[in-house]
Amino acid sequence: MSKKWVYLFKEGNANMKELLGGKGANLAEMTNIGLPVPGGFTVTTEACTEYYNQDKKLSDEIVGQINDYMSVLEKECDKEFGNADNPLLVSVRSGAKFSMPGMMDTILNLGLNDETVAGIAKATDNERFAFDSYRRFIQMFGDVVQEIGKEKFDHVLEAAKEKNGYKDDTELTADDLKAIVVAYKKIVKDETGEDFPLDPKDQLLMAIEAVFRSWNNNRAISYRNMNDIPHDIGTAVNVQSMVYGNMGNDCGTGVAFTRNPATGQKKLFGEFLINAQGEDVVAGIRTPKDIDELKDIMPAVYKQFHETAELLEKHYKDMQDIEFTIEKSKLFMLQTRTGKRTAAAAICAAVEMVEEGLITKEEAILRLDPIALDQLLHPTFEAAALTAAELLATGLPASPGAATGKIYFTAEAVCAAVANGEETLLVRKETSPEDIEGMYAANGILTARGGMTSHAAVVARGMGKCCVAGCESIKVDEAAKQFTVGNQVFKEGDYISLNGSTGSVYKGSIKTVTPELSGHFGQIMAWSDEFRTLKVRTNADTPKDASVAVGFGAEGIGLCRTEHMFFDEHRLPSVRRMILSESKEQREKALAEILPMQKEDFIGIYKAMEGRPVTVRLLDPPLHEFLPKETKDIEALAVDMGFAVEDMLTIIQGLEEFNPMLGHRGCRLAITYPEIAEMQTRAIMEAAIEVKEKYGFNVIPEIMIPLIGINEELTYLDKVVRNTAEVIRAEKKSDIEYLVGTMMEIPRATLIADQIAETAEFFSFGTNDLTQMTYGFSRDDAGKFITDYKEKGILPNDPFQSIDVEGVGKLVEMGVTLGRKTKPDLKIGVCGEHGGDPKSIFFFHSVGLSYVSCSPFRVPIARLAAAQAALSNNKSAFTDK
Amino acid sequence: MSKKWVYLFKEGNANMKELLGGKGANLAEMTNIGLPVPGGFTVTTEACTEYYNQDKKLSDEIVGQINDYMSVLEKECDKEFGNADNPLLVSVRSGAKFSMPGMMDTILNLGLNDETVAGIAKATDNERFAFDSYRRFIQMFGDVVQEIGKEKFDHVLEAAKEKNGYKDDTELTADDLKAIVVAYKKIVKDETGEDFPLDPKDQLLMAIEAVFRSWNNNRAISYRNMNDIPHDIGTAVNVQSMVYGNMGNDCGTGVAFTRNPATGQKKLFGEFLINAQGEDVVAGIRTPKDIDELKDIMPAVYKQFHETAELLEKHYKDMQDIEFTIEKSKLFMLQTRTGKRTAAAAICAAVEMVEEGLITKEEAILRLDPIALDQLLHPTFEAAALTAAELLATGLPASPGAATGKIYFTAEAVCAAVANGEETLLVRKETSPEDIEGMYAANGILTARGGMTSHAAVVARGMGKCCVAGCESIKVDEAAKQFTVGNQVFKEGDYISLNGSTGSVYKGSIKTVTPELSGHFGQIMAWSDEFRTLKVRTNADTPKDASVAVGFGAEGIGLCRTEHMFFDEHRLPSVRRMILSESKEQREKALAEILPMQKEDFIGIYKAMEGRPVTVRLLDPPLHEFLPKETKDIEALAVDMGFAVEDMLTIIQGLEEFNPMLGHRGCRLAITYPEIAEMQTRAIMEAAIEVKEKYGFNVIPEIMIPLIGINEELTYLDKVVRNTAEVIRAEKKSDIEYLVGTMMEIPRATLIADQIAETAEFFSFGTNDLTQMTYGFSRDDAGKFITDYKEKGILPNDPFQSIDVEGVGKLVEMGVTLGRKTKPDLKIGVCGEHGGDPKSIFFFHSVGLSYVSCSPFRVPIARLAAAQAALSNNKSAFTDK
């Protein structure tokens, strides 16, 4: 039995997007609800796949069906393909399952040839129109199907205009256009060696094949890569009889949204042109009119369109983006699709549609893109100011928001400038933990090296600070205090501007605007909280971050890193003394200096969290990160500590590691130097007791031991922590509670999670490290090959951005299952970057985690994503895109 | 019901080692087969555990049973504990399940006090003997039970001798000894504040407790750590009535082996002393006589002993190590145990016992320690020469064997000296791949840094070359061409000697001897091959290594690394040009220079392997390893390649990585530069075709792609390799077969092994990297904390030495199960260091691997271990130690 490769519009419906593409399915749907859609049919996406399977040939079966359906269409329209007297002309458009605007090709007026052009001239009584259509068709066909450079055609057109002294295309006469058609056909003959195909059936099949081929043009592939669209689903082709908006002043064409796509306001929003074809609206040669004006010009058509728009919105229960054409006062619907909108508009429309009774709260939540919320939380450039800006370079959009300021090349210089009241940006080859203060002080960060999970990117996202990372086209010379892009040199104090949401770097200062969170936003968050079962905590190391996160609805801190506190310039000397101590006693002395400062940190954080749980991770990074790197700093430290410079160098070199990521860090530090864990435990506990006594917040600190891979690491440190905590409880006569738990970030830990859960009171998955070790990728080094991996299709998704379900996810599941085998109620969270990624949140929900923890600015995103996960309760809901 | 804590010797047997300890179980066994064993009983290991559980107290129940059994013993011996007229004296000795010679404490003559000493004097008619025993008892009790420094007692003894002008202890008269007893008791009173305990029952309980305590003295704990003996099994205590070898010339004491423990020769081997106690034999004050002489001195006793020894060997079916005492011409057996022996003796005895019909081939195989075979394969120091040697320092026994030579501090210097005919040792802070040639040329390698799996250790083991690694007490100054230990300075050209089996570093040159493999060795190997199911391959990168391995019985190459070949000084320039190429064309040109050289390598290796399978791993290490590190070398390379030095530096810096272990290496290189994989495939295939044509060896190369973690990495490279191989087969009109497979060394690969097996034709587990990533340990850096881990009991076994069954092993099992789910017959091997480790081989056998691959010198070990695994077919057989 032969397969059905072609569907008339009336044979399809809106649910058949996979087979008919989005455009085809919606044309079918509109046809079936009785809207005025020009007749046509859709060649399916399966035909596209078959085309590629047959080595880029249309099978006889497919060709046969296309011809059959063409005949049906001829009957329907009462016109005939290639008939000089009553010709049928069609458009041929791509339409894949997922919208890929502008990525693939379209051909209009197909069916024109030397004979039918006359028929059209006669039928429309407009010879100029007919030949203009014909020359447009040849140009489009030559460009799209025959791959002849567009500029060759443009050149002829321009020459004709010049010769005649015309300014506008519209001044060209019918005769001019006839001559141009001749010239165009010559171009085709010269370029392809063959005559322009005059048989409409040939034209049609060639056009369909060209659309199929365009599925794999470079820009379509890149678009799919960027938007996580599979490469193997193919596109459908829609063949539709032409209608014309350019046959006179009773004609026109336009596009409209059923609501304002920027704000969400419920009011038709769009524009139209009288006597024009669709491409004229897009081309921007004439200025379109506001859709409201149509009311005055063609009141009946406007009324019909307005009603149709309302009907479509009700029918689809969502904001529609509609294309229409008016041919001789008759309205035709050419396309409807879900309207793209800003995050603000999405939220406004969703909430109002619930209020209107159009959709349910669940539907409102499920249709919002959590990632898009990010737009609402960060500063943006003022639109007007941006227009004039000069784009210098593009890096990775490492941390969203817009920032402008004078550039400085060291953290110290930034801090000094900020102290002088300047707005600054920190520019570095790459950042290191030593730069923390400068990163905090600057408005934004720009680095030349490093990926989406480089130090700069991770820290900046944690701070909610704009960052463009890995901007490889800028050459940073930190010593000379300048960077270059091409020939341009930017020196310390020069202004630039960064868009961390897009990765763009602009010359000069651009005004930014701070967004305000609307009531609709709060409503969506409140609804999300009704549905989600996953708790949402935040990663926060400072009272300020903690407060921001609470404002965004964080229910606790899932990760309070203690190392950033160690980089404070007032503490570094003590920290360094601690590291370089030659005996336990010396080390304890240095730690005693740090203790009151750490305690103050925790007091501030506990106060900001007002009794919500706080998970504090004990010191994690390798100690050499805290030591100076520059010769002058090493010399200064040697003098300060009374060491010979040489000895100091030897000690520092001794602390260097081949693979610090796999070296002496995490719990391994605390096992070598239990006194560090003891000091930190003391700071954590004393602060909690003090905050409880003074402010009445009943803090239950959760002490988290990082990098556990061996059960005995945990049992050993659990004892160290508990013994210290008990001493403090006794000293202070406090009955304050506390938990001791562990990170799950070493693959081995997940494999023996049943053992670990014997001791641990909670788990928190550190999926950054877990991903690094499971893949054997260092995120700092992966930049060297990750681009190749993406280009070659080896790694379609960045596993540091969304969790790798089949690999890393298997370990997560194993850890959860084994951990809960030992302790069925074990509290399990995640505090890696994935904690704020919606796709990953779906996975974490599906494996039964208790909470996710993410950077403050991700908290709203996580709340929404968690609600979506609970509502769909289906691992694949999001991965299906 | 009360538990039985005490067993009379006649209540036990040889199988009760766990409960009675080795010594107690054997005393029981000897008692029950009717041998003359002085009466006694054993307090169980469970009592020891109970003692610790009760906070180091003996429970009333245990004390009651001890007293009860003491009464039984009194009746048996017809003597009475504490009876002045007919006193029973006992020895109290420790005895754990596993022999821990000299680690725990022993007390003799217990039961002596001021009254019973007189009874003994009367019974033996030897007052001097009685008081000498008494003073020895007080000293031993004071030392062991009351923890009074031994030297305090020695001081009194020496003073008495000096005062009287005596040279020997034997010159002390009964009166002298009486005075010494008084002085000893005063020491006890002064030190403990209490009188020396005179009640024998008190003495007994105190002694038993002391033995229990000695289970946890420092040297016992270290011994258990070193020998993988669990800490929680406790020791038993044997209480046995005393017999005396020092009551006159019709008395004596001795030890003997039933066969020669050095050679295995079947002949009584031992020594004895007339009129002496056991400790005199050990103390070495008098020179013992050869056991043969006993035949002349006491013919009847000798005959009885000889028969008893034969009986015991037959009974235990193994060589016995026997202690005996002759009291007034009566023979008493005090201990028998399996005799410790050299590897040579073990093999000789095992083979001969099979020939004698004493044991089966299976038993012979199961009782050999595979690791001990290593002794037979490497040079050793001449015993006599070693006696005089000065030990300088001790590092890690990184690669076995003995070596002596002049020290040099760079690979170049070693090579130059070897060219001059010198014997050399390479001394480095740590080695890097650049040192390969020097490592190859030197007799041995000494490094100051790095663990058992550091570069130096791994490479040296691969070469079968002596290496002491991580010898931290030597300070290497490569620039000054010297190292220091304490105050001693050793300069280039000075002689030192290394024992890679023990980690010892000696001053000066020590003569070495090369061992010869006996026919017994071959017999054991042949029997092993009969039983084992696991194939044994070798890791070999050179024809020489391959030949050595074939000589040892390797059945193929499981890992032929290609990177060592790249370090050859004649190739490095081309390799560097390849790395620094700026276009694919440039790179292909450099690769074309390398191709013929690689091809020659493979031809040599294929010839050496004579048609056995050869698995070649494509290039694995990060490219920057091949680039120069020293400024002068960089400058030279820049000149050579026509680069500015600055640009060269930038390029080299650009290739540096934060965590090279997790960086751009393995298959990631081949994905970025497929032309490298293409060149290597060409060299592998062309060489195979040539060797087949010229020499008739039907080589089936197995091309192995390293570091796969993502299925698409493999499918991509599989295509690159196969396309190249097919081109060559067509070019050469050859139908040669080949396989394409992958390393399993990234944790993620084991989790998706079912996918990977769709493409891979074989798996080879790289358990070094798999262990590193599963633990998140870099073996280069773990040295910083691994010592602490061992001391704190966190990591009792080094997971790089024996596979971590519960963590890494779980991933291996998963990889095997998933891989075979896709391809039930999938060939799966292991080519990490674990491939030559017996414990790990047991595990690999248990999970059904097809083969293990190890360094050439490990091949015999692996063959034996594989046979043992097959025979015991029990994962825990070896881990039970």
TrEMBL record, chains A, B:
Its cofactor is Mg(2+). Residues 422-503 form the PEP-utilising enzyme mobile domain. Its EC number is 2.7.9.1. It catalyses: pyruvate + phosphate + ATP = phosphoenolpyruvate + AMP + diphosphate + H(+). Residues 56-292, 303-348 form the Pyruvate phosphate dikinase AMP/ATP-binding domain. GO terms for molecular function: pyruvate, phosphate dikinase activity. InterPro entries: ATP_grasp_subdomain_1 (IPR013815), PEP-util_enz_mobile_dom (IPR008279), PEP_util_AS (IPR018274), PEP_util_C (IPR000121), PEP_util_CS (IPR023151), Phosphohistidine_dom_sf (IPR036637), PPDK_AMP/ATP-bd (IPR002192), Pyruvate_phosphate_dikinase (IPR010121). Keywords: ATP-binding, Kinase, Magnesium, Metal-binding, Nucleotide-binding, Pyruvate, Transferase. Residues 518-869 form the PEP-utilising enzyme C-terminal domain. Coiled coil: none annotated. It comes from the Bacteria. Pfam families: PEP-utilizers, PEP-utilizers_C, PPDK_N. Belongs to the PEP-utilizing enzyme family. This is Pyruvate, phosphate dikinase. It comes from Acetobacterium malicum.
